[in-house]
Amino acid sequence: MTPYRIPFNKPSLAGNEKRYMMEAIERGHISGDGHFTKQCHALLERELGVAKALLTTSCTHALEMCALLVNLQPGDEVIVPSFAFVTTALAFALHGAKPIFVDVRPDTLNLDEALVEDKITPRTKAIVALHYAGVACEMDALLAIGNRCGVPVIEDNAHGLFAKYKDRWLGTLGALNTQSFHETKNFTCGEGGALLIQDARLIERAEILREKGTNRSRFLRGLVHKYTWVDYGSSWLPSDLLAAFLLAQLEACETIQTRRRTLWERYVRELEGWARESGVSLPVVPEHCRQAYHMFYLLMRDGAQRDGLLSHLEERGILAVFHYLPLHQSDMGRRFGGKDGDCPVTESVSGRLVRLPFYTCLTDSEQGEVIEAVRSYQGR
Ligand SMILES: Cc1ncc(COP(=O)(O)O)c(C=O)c1O
User: Fold this and answer.
1) For a designed S-S bond to 319, which of 8, 90, 222, 339 qualifies (C-beta 3.0 to 4.6 A apart)?
2) What are the distances in angstroms from CA 267 to CA 40, 160, 196, 262, 295?
3) How confident is the model over 299-350, as pLDDT tens digits?
4) Is 178 in the pocket of ligand 1 (CB under 6 A)?
């Protein structure tokens, strides 16, 4: 049990999770690629219009599949934002790449497209576009750079399922795109993810990598008489029990997103006056982006004001958190050549950001308490 009255995150049930999991058990298929996995694939492909969806055991593992699909060789480079989750870089580093850390825009905190082209070399194998908080990167610019330089763009869309960039779904714009269904995400099965493939030439190999390097998918379709070891890979397909849980959540997309939008808009409405007076910035969502309502964050004036707010909330039983620590300044980032001052926006934002409790089952009165507690913070 959390010692906090209002935790930072809580998994929210959509309604049909237990029933679908029981049904998976009754169907007698609880390993991967059963009835519910197929339903999840079909739903994602239908709703997003993506060529192929493959559930994975995590977003991290979907990113690892991307590393293999772009054929990384030792010494190759992958461009990643420094303001990112560890595995956005780790998944590629694990497969031999040197992460090239690029700074983010001060408004959306997304990869700064104006800095990317200068970082591209003959060894660049991918540009990873992480849509922070489910607000799109400037995809037209990134895709144009990718096309010009012959480098695929991979979307790390862990935060952004059902968000749009200029009327196009996030997770369908890159050649390869990854989703997370971790407990903290809008749609969850505890631990899980997906690889969304838009470049149809990569589908067959992705199926092989995900199935332990075997051509089992072709065997199951009756295309080969027996299946065997044909490539690298791992065991990246989740149990159908998890897919059953996830399907219940994905089917409730509208209810979940409507509730999260209401919560997000209330935070803005009731905190904007306080923020203005306190020199605090609220999230920026450009006009041409439909966001995913994944998180609500405050950008405080400085680190002291941020730490003060975190303690102030903690004393009132409310858990707020910060992230990400700049990857270029992490122990591993330094091993890849990262130095203080390389990404000034990331360094500044990382020291000032606060994420408030934000989850689908946060009640109106709990949210009211968080808002009151924030507004009573005098640290200016
Ligand atoms: C941007 C981003 N990418 C990747 C991940 C990894 O997701 P998973 O836990 O599903 O591996 C996360 C997790 O929070 C994330 O925020």
Assistant:
1) 8
2) 32, 19, 32, 9, 11
3) 999 999 999 999 999 999 999 999 999 999 999 999 999 999 999 999 999 9
4) no
Q: Where are the alpha helices (DSSP H) in the chain?
A: 17-27, 35-48, 59-69, 86-93, 139-149, 203-210, 216-220, 240-251, 253-278, 303-315, 331-335, 344-350, 364-375
- Note the pLDDT of residue 2: 66
What distance in angstroms lies between residue 213's CA and the mean position of ligand 1's atoms?
24
Residue 193 near ligand 1, beta carbon < 6 Å: yes
pTM of the prediction? Answer: 0.97
Cβ 269 vs Cβ 212: under 8 Å: no
Probe ligand 1: pick from 9, 56, 57, 59, max atoms within 8 Å of CB? 59
Q: For residue 208, name the pLDDT band (cuts at 50, 70, 90).
A: very high
239 lines ligand 1 (CB under 6 A): no
- How far apart CA 145 and CA 170 sit, in angstroms, is 18
- Answer whether 373 contacts ligand 1 (Cβ < 6 A): no
Rounded Cα distance, 186 and 159, in Å: 8
pLDDT tens across 117-126, in order?
Answer: 999 999 999 9
pLDDT above 90 (res 379): no
pLDDT value, residue 1: 56
- For the record, the structure tokens of 188 come out as 């969850």
Separation CA 54–CA 179 (nearest Å):
10
57 Cβ below 6 A of ligand 1: no
Interior angle at CA 376, CA 370 and CA 378, nearest 5? 130
| pLDDT-based confidence at residue 378 (cuts at 50, 70, 90) | confident
